[in-house]
User: Which sequence fits this backbone?
């Protein structure tokens, strides 16, 4: 696939038939952004069932980190599939899990640790639930503090920790008790002058002077848990001082710091983990999504001083599946072999191009922000003298971009997230930005 090529009306006839089948038999809870039906992919390009070729700027929500159909990842998968597919690594030993566990443990920065331990699971949501269980077990404390606009998955533990959209929580109560929320800083507050803190000092003060003094005692808090960059909440990058402030608070009160790196980790931000940008190490790190270039595997990592629970305290039948581990090992090799640095370089170029577009459309684009290839473009407008989110413009952009061959994805109140495969080139970024600029001119 050499580039974007739209040959039919969208959706084409084959796609339309498959979409009808999908809507007939799949759960009504599933949400689709536009009528695209994937048939095959290569690098940053994907082809639908009618032969239309698009540029993929969301990578299956930051999952296909090494691009679609990476030959080395595919070869690793095929080699392992030719040997054996499964042998429940929770009960039996195999020749793959321990090797990859050491590689991942040694690659993951953990606070005050001489040796890390790894638990393998299947998804980011499972990793999150496991991290919550571990934090409570390790500290003997029942409470966890999360952040407004955060997202941690769709399990019961995940939705109990989410506060990005009420639809994720409505109708599923009672939820997991003991989870409290604090505020996450924003450099671009929208709407303007909100009745809650958006700066670093205000957010930290709310945590210590309101939550700790009025809601939950700090010596009953097992963990403070954050996404180093909020994903579903709008691709919001906090100031370094905020993350460092959380580390100080955790150290003062014996609280564990959990970093949910499911979306921000595995090279996406130009470093293997986003926490490295803030010069802070967490006590527990969760990872999934881009960890295996599309194969289902997740993990959480902690020091051997924290991960001390007994046999049988936690488990997974499929966690660390050997085929997924083979893909994950090759993905980590590619990330450490230059792909992470490439993501940082190309991401900086992408951010620069988007800011140039923003400068030409200040009435549409309120903010452009991000690290590496984790970039958010927020649509905003002025209404009665106040800056407010413009979800309608965001949604119109996504629709028009799709019609021109770009696959993008929404997040937050009015943000488009760009999280393409990490193999994207500057030339491909230029193609994407030319289309983005053209769409902006039509809105």
Assistant:
């Amino acid at each position: 696939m050499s580039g974007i090529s739209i040959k039919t009306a969208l959706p084409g006839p084959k796609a339309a038939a498959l979409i009808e089948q999908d809507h007939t038999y799949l759960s009504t809870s599933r949400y689709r952004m536009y009528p695209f039906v994937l048939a095959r992919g290569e690098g940053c390009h994907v082809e639908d069932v009618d032969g239309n070729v698009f540029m993929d700027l969301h990578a299956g929500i930051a999952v296909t980190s090494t691009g679609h159909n990476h030959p080395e990842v595919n070869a690793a998968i095929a080699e392992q599939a030719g040997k054996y597919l499964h042998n429940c690594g929770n009960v039996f030993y195999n020749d793959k899990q321990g090797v990859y566990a050491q590689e991942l443990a040694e690659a993951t920065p953990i606070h005050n640790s001489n040796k890390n331990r790894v638990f393998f699971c299947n998804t980011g949501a499972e990793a999150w639930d496991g991290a919550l269980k571990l934090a409570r077990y390790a500290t003997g404390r029942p409470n966890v503090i999360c952040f407004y606009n955060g997202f941690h998955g769709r399990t019961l533990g995940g939705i109990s920790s989410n506060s990005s959209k009420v639809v994720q929580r409505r109708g599923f109560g009672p939820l997991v008790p003991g989870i409290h929320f604090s505020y996450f800083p924003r450099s671009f507050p929208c709407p303007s002058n909100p009745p809650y803190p958006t700066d670093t000092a205000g957010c930290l003060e709310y945590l210590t002077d309101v939550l700790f003094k009025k809601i939950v005692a700090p010596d009953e808090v097992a963990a403070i848990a954050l996404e180093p960059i909020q994903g579903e909440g709008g691709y919001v990058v906090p100031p370094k001082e905020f993350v460092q402030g959380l580390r100080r608070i955790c150290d003062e009160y014996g609280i564990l710091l959990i970093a949910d790196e499911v979306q921000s980790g595995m090279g996406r931000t130009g470093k293997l983990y986003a926490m490295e940008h803030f010069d802070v190490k967490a006590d527990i790190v969760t990872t999934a999504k881009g960890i295996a270039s599309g194969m289902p595997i997740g993990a959480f990592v902690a020091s051997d001083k924290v991960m001390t629970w007994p046999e049988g305290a936690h488990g997974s039948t499929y966690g660390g599946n050997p085929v997924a581990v083979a893909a994950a090992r090759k993905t980590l090799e590619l990330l450490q072999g230059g792909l992470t640095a490439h993501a940082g370089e190309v991401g900086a170029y992408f951010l620069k191009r988007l800011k140039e577009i923003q400068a030409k459309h200040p009435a549409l684009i309120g903010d452009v922000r991000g690290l590496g290839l984790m970039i958010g473009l927020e649509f905003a407008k002025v209404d009665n003298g106040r800056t407010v989110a413009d979800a309608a413009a965001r949604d119109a952009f996504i629709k028009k971009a799709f019609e021109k061959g770009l696959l993008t994805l929404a997040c937050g109140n009015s943000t488009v997230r760009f999280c393409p495969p990490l193999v994207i080139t500057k030339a491909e970024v230029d193609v994407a930005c030319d289309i983005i600029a053209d769409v902006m001119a039509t809105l």
Q: What stands out?
A: Residues 103 and 329 are 8 Å apart (CA to CA). The first strand starts at residue 38 and ends at 42.
